[in-house]
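Intended use. Records like the one below are meant for learning the mapping from a protein sequence to its folded structure. Do not use them to infer anything beyond what is encoded.
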Amino acid sequence: ADLDQALTSGDLGDAYADALDRATTLDAWDAHRRVEIALAGLDACTDRTRLLLSLSHGQRYRVRLACALASRADTLLLDEPTNHLDATALGFLTDQLTSWSGGLGVVTHDRALLRDLSADGRATFLDLDPTADGTPLLVTGTYDAWMERRRADRERWEQEYTAQVAEHQRLESAVVDARSRLRDNWRPEKGHSKHGRATRSDGIVQTLHRRKKERASHAVQIHEPPLELRWPTVSVASGKTLLTCTDVAVAGRLEPVTLELTGGEHVLLTGPNGAGKSTFVDVVDGTVEATSGTVHVHDGVRVGVLTQHEPVWQHPDLVAAEVYARYTVRFDSAPGLASLGLLDRAARSTPVGRLSQGQQRRLHFAKVLSERPDLLILDEPTNHLSAVLVDAVTEAVKDTAAGVIVVTHDRQMLRDLGEWSRVELG
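Structure written out for the chain above:
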């Protein structure tokens, strides 16, 4: 606008100088090269003639991320930047962000990225998860310092809540006891004054009023702490063959894969984007048909699959608890939704169409666990889940007697499950 005005007035000196300063600050002459480097580093499409709408959702995201990284902005804000990135792209992104010279704000559940970005101890964590006083938790330091503060605050929260509940229950019991004494047909022992009963009754009434007043003045002022994950137990014989895949392939999507899994055996399925990991999961789940090879889920084996894509809710107006109840009615001894510790009371009573992505992911997870599967397949289980819940899931899959296949790019989960067997695709 300034340049147009300058052209109209004929005064180009100041406008040209301002435009030159802006271009120099942005290093505009190098912008194309920076974009090319970012596109290549993120394994994004480098064909400038391609329409964005012709690209997959993941590829479009990579193009947008590349442009943001190449912008040399004073402040960069990124929302879940590690979504849709494989190991190579994650490494490139981490290098870019750890060397970023401007302001940087990142919304992410990626624990490895959080560790890397806070390694110098100067990062500030704004934790919006529930707290005892309802205010956000603000911590400056490393990832481990943040987690230690969370653990300490959670322990104190649970202790204070338990103490308040116990005191309220004690006062409630005192009221009940005083009321029961008043209702008793009490009589003084022989030889006592005939006025003793009236005097005693007055005292009991006064005690009851005092107990009620004490109870009324003591309310549980601390919110109940969030639920914690409770993994349902399964009984699978160690060594029992659960799944046999022989040269399973899908033309153009999955090269032949051979895999046998037994009870208690845990496997990581890894490989770059496009190698066919999710396709393999869909083949085992029966939603995609293999073009060659065989897949055999052995008799009596219950299979639970947490897919990368969220299910389509047929009744989005139903609350989460009802959706879960309708799904689990066909299973014997399915755990209650509340008992799994995945959704709090408010989320359980919210229509599924209004749940956040993270809450919908938790409901999807609950449905999978409700079947008490002998064979559990988790495709990118860290997507849309908090770091604390992912840590709990990681510990649970380590200990379960079920056979487990985990498909993940999450670097922290890969480190935590580093002792598992690996099947590399692509």
